[in-house]
Write a structure and sequence with these properties.
Blueprint (H helix, E strand, L loop, with lengths): L17 E2 L10 E2 L4 E4 L7 H10 L3 E4 L3 H6 L8 E4 L6 H10 L6 H18 L1 H13 L4 E4 L6 H12 L4 H9 L1 H4 L12 H7 L4 H15 L2 H9 L3 H11 E2 L1
Length: 248
């Protein structure tokens, strides 16, 4: 394997499939390549894409899509066990409520709703992320975690993993923002919102992830306490994660 593989695997059916390897974590050690992948949904993978996952040894997929999302766009990749960790999408419902109340939806509304969504990840969805960490701690067998676009639920999960491994917040943010370089927004036949609003909803901004990370700091006193109290990842678990996913 090359020392610095491509971060984006450029799959035909998943534009946001990326490797979390290569970042410097605790003790100057590096996150291992080809172990931890994040992605948009996997339902459009081509046969060649599926062969690529097989060659990578990816045997586990953790799906953060809500129940209806998952049922509407299922997938089955040979050799990949699926685990549903549903986090229901709320932004569309909140926008609908605003529209029904006579509010004109603006980019500012969309930003505020996205920030609320990220704070909810911290306070309302910790159990799903805790389950992901349970699996991470079981073995270092290659895995992928994803939602629909691989940007919000997946982005926060990636931030948690990298920060648990000691990757600095500014580096975590740079990884998070790579979605804007790679993700191909869907072509909507009947868009229900103005283009400038859709550009907020289908992209990521520092303000989104910062809303979650600032909530962690304000409400828990920092990521280590949040990890231990809400995700059951204390010092011993973090040492095991480092042993599994960091290399000198």
């Amino acid at each position: 394997m090359p020392l610095h593989p491509d971060r984006s695997l450029a799959l035909a059916g998943a534009s946001n499939f990326r490797d979390l390897g290569g970042y410097q974590g605790s003790g100057g050690r590096t996150v291992r390549w080809r172990k931890l992948f994040r992605s948009d949904h996997l339902a459009a993978l081509t046969p060649e894409d599926a062969r690529t996952l097989g060659a990578l040894g990816v045997g586990r997929a953790f799906d953060f899509r809500g129940t209806t999302e998952r049922a509407a766009v299922p997938y089955d990749v040979a050799g990949v066990a699926q685990y549903s960790l549903p986090i229901e999408p709320t932004v569309v419902q909140r926008m609908k409520e605003l529209a029904e109340a006579g509010e004109q939806i603006t980019p500012a509304h969309a930003v505020a709703l996205m920030q609320q969504t990220y704070r909810a990840f911290v306070h309302d969805n910790a159990g799903r992320f805790a389950t992901l960490f349970e699996h991470l701690l079981e073995s270092d067998a290659p895995l992928v975690f994803h939602c629909t676009a691989g940007k919000d639920r997946t982005g926060f999960a990636a931030a948690l993993i990298l920060m648990a491994l000691g990757v600095p917040r500014d580096v975590v943010m740079r990884d998070y923002l790579l979605t804007n370089d790679f993700y191909r927004m869907p072509v909507l036949a009947d868009p229900r919102a103005p283009k400038e609003v859709l550009n907020v909803l289908w992209r990521v901004q520092e303000d989104f992830l910062n809303a979650a990370l600032d909530a962690v700091d304000a409400d828990y006193g920092g990521m280590p306490i949040y990890l231990e109290r809400e995700l059951r990842v204390g010092e011993a678990e973090r040492r095991r994660l480092e042993a599994l996913y960091l290399v000198s």
